[in-house]
Amino acid sequence: MFLTMDNFDFNNKSVVVRVDINCPLDPDSGEILDDKRIREVCDTLKELINSEAKVTILAHQSRPGKKDFTSLSEHCKVLSEHLNHEVEFIDELFSRRVRERILNLEPGEAIMLENVRFSSEEVLSDWKKWEGITPKKQGETYFIKKLAPLFNYFINDAFPAAHRAQPSLVGFSYYMPAIAGRLMEKEIKVLSKVRDDPENPCVYSLGGAKADDSIKIMMNVIEKVDKILTSGVVGNIFLIAKGYDLGRENKEIIKNLGLEGEIEKAKKLLEKYGEKILTPVDLALEVDGERVERKVTEKIDKPAYDIGSETIEIYSEVLKEAKTIVANGPAGVFEKEKFSYGTRKLLEAMANSKAFTVIGGGHLSAVAELYGFSDKIDHISTGGGSTLSFLSGERLPVIEVLKMSYEKY
User: Which of 107, 156, 165, 282 is buried most, with the most CB atoms less than 10 Å from its CB?
Assistant: First the structure.
């Protein structure tokens, strides 16, 4: 259980809202290439502005050392356009000027502060080993101590960062109620439902290169699902676990990704749940720049970059009968046009299905947008790592803090 915006009256109250609007940027111009995450937080912010709250927005973009580690001034302009309401940008974080501006906010006004990761405390804190981190510890950082007295409530709407425990994500909850924003609330409810209590038949389609994450998800949900469709590197690992010889190059790909240890885990899953886990029956290889399909029983001597037509047909039939579908990761190397076919056809099967459909963020959500399937999917998660961690059953710092706040307030 967690506190939601329904539990409070924000009229004339000072509210700090942590969002995740980390966007892909053009490396040359710095222009925002995809503003989906900005659009997704608008419901929460509109509601606060309409209820005459005094709103201060905190967010980040990338991290130190990366080319897209920039100011949030452009994000603020785009957000203002989507809200149809001016959000003032302040290019500092906790100076006297910032604090005075927060104190002098009028009801219905909104400001956005500079990238929180410009603060050394935000990036240097030991936020990855979060088990030892408490709201108290993060709340005692200089950054949070300077800002916290200025606010009545803390709203966390940064689901994509829910697996982090940095000061701006958990520190304010030491001083005031931590409340789930509308996006956070929706993500937790939808992902909890498909993880813990899906309508059957329930099918998970797991592809991409993050086989370690996919196998964690399988281990957590396999008792509740009817079928798991494997593709991409995940599918290749399960084929090797079944004893198929995929040739030197495909084994090298798995080795270079540091995923050799996952083959043994795949074997154990197949021993216990083999009837639930479907693997490709044919693969699309790259031979002299062309797509060549071969059955997995034939000689595989070139890189497998997609699932084959027969596999697509089998998987599409399974998806057609499902009541719940959760998909994570592309079926192949979709960046190469000739090998985007499997990903495209599985997305098409999802879009045409009568099931409740969920895409777990990351690359697959970008592909769904690219091919025009987004509008036909019931829920596309804004998370990447946070969604994978949530579906794997891991405890996420931000959500743990929301639960603690519910018990406290």
Answer: 156
Check for a shared fold between 5-180+396-408 and 188-377: yes
Quick: pLDDT tens for 190-205. 999 999 999 999 999 9
Taking only the tens place, the pLDDT of each residue in 84-120 is: 999 999 999 999 999 999 999 999 999 999 999 999 9
Residue 352 is labelled as binding a ligand: no
22 is in an annotated binding site: yes
- Is residue 340 part of an annotated ligand binding site? no
Q: Confirm or deny that 21 is annotated as ligand binding.
A: yes
To the question of whether residue 97 is assigned a binding role by annotation, the answer is no
Is 91 labelled as part of a ligand binding site? no
Tell me: domain 188-377, CATH 3.90.76.10, correct?
Answer: no
**348 marked as part of a ligand binding site:** no
Determine whether the annotation assigns residue 385 to a binding site.
no
Please check if 50 is assigned to a binding site.
Answer: no
Give the predicted TM-score (pTM) of the model.
Answer: 0.89
Helix (H) or strand (E) holding 285: strand 282-287
Q: What secondary structure does DSSP assign to 176-204, as a single string?
A: S-EEE-HHHHHHHHHHHHHHHSPPSSEEE
Class of residue 212 by CB neighbours under 10 A (exposed 0-12, middle 13-18, buried 19+) = middle
Residue 127 has pLDDT above 70, yes or no: no
Residue identified by tokens 């924003």 is: 181
Are the beta carbons of 53 and 8 closer than 8 angstroms? no
Does 61 count as an annotated binding residue?
yes
